[in-house]
């Protein structure tokens, strides 16, 4: 994900704002350190209190906390180059009649590309029992950056691609892939569902 640079109406900057802006950046960094890889949002009632105390709009504050949760998705995405080989995996996880499968990994000089397939038996049309597939976030450990590239599917099947950098070793034995349903703000009614597929 990326954003176009903001088109500025003028280049003037009030230097008296510099110390304030520096404090804001310092606090953003402090918050990032405390929360780690988790994403935390103040409860709505807390945001309401903040808005009243500091004379700010609630929606404005909600948008700020939402933007803070997006930093990782704004990092430049690695573009895989120099294809090397396929690494067969064929590992799966089943939950409530839904099968999640990793069949293989594409190895490149600077990254790996992993594919997660989701398959389920579709119920009758307009049935409440129909499975509503999710796009998952992938994490491994602090060494690897995992970014979802694209996802999509058809009735009873969905596939999602991930770019992992640096590239995984050719021997992936013991590596654990942690797939997690995105939380708020990306999915308001998140159940927190996650599962692990161990390779090798």
Please specify the SSE layout and strand pairing:
Elements: H1 18-35, H2 44-54, H3 58-68, E1 83-95, E2 98-108, E3 112-120, E4 137-139, E5 145-154, E6 157-165, E7 176-180, E8 194-198
Antiparallel strand pairs: 1-2, 2-3, 3-6, 4-7, 5-6, 7-8
Beta-strand proportion: 25-35%
The major sheet is characterized as:
5 strands, antiparallel
CATH fold-level assignment of the largest domain: Immunoglobulin-like
Provide the helix percentage: 10-25%
What oligomeric arrangement do these chains adopt?
single chain
Task: Using the coordinates above, name the CATH class of the largest domain.
Answer: Mainly Beta
Which structural class should the secondary elements be placed in?
Answer: alpha+beta
Q: Note the run of SSEs as H and E.
A: HHHEEEEEEEE
The CATH superfamily of the largest domain is Conserved domain protein
Number of helices: 3
The rounded Rg comes to 21 Å
Would you write up a description of this structure?
- There is one protein chain.
- The protein has 200 residues and is an alpha+beta fold.
- The protein has two domains: 15-71, no CATH class; 83-198, Conserved domain protein (Immunoglobulin-like).
- Helices cover 20% and strands 32% of the residues.
- It has helices spanning 18-35, 44-54, 58-68, and strands spanning 83-95, 98-108, 112-120, 137-139, 145-154, 157-165, 176-180, 194-198.
- The two termini are 32 Å apart.
Name the descriptors.
Immunoglobulin-like; five-stranded antiparallel β-sheet; 200 residues; 3 helices; three-stranded antiparallel β-sheet; 20% helix; 32% strand; alpha+beta; globular
């Amino acid at each position: 994900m990326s954003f176009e640079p903001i088109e500025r109406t003028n280049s003037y900057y009030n230097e008296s704002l510099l110390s304030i802006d520096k404090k804001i950046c310092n606090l953003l960094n402090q918050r990032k350190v405390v929360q780690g890889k988790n994403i935390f949002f103040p409860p709505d009632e807390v945001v309401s209190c903040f808005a009243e105390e500091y004379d700010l709009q609630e929606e404005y504050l909600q948008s700020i906390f939402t933007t803070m949760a997006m930093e990782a998705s704004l990092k430049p995405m690695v573009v895989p180059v120099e294809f090397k080989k396929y690494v067969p995996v064929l590992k799966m996880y089943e939950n409530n009649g839904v099968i999640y499968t990793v069949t293989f990994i594409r190895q490149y000089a600077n990254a790996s590309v992993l594919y997660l397939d989701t398959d389920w038996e579709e119920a009758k049309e307009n049935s409440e029992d129909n499975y509503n597939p999710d796009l998952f976030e992938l994490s491994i450990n602090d060494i690897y950056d995992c970014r979802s590239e694209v996802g999509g599917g058809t009735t009873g099947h969905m596939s999602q691609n991930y770019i992992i950098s640096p590239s995984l070793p050719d021997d992936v034995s013991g590596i654990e892939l942690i797939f997690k349903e995105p939380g708020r703000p990306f999915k308001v009614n998140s159940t927190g569902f996650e599962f692990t597929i161990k390779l090798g």
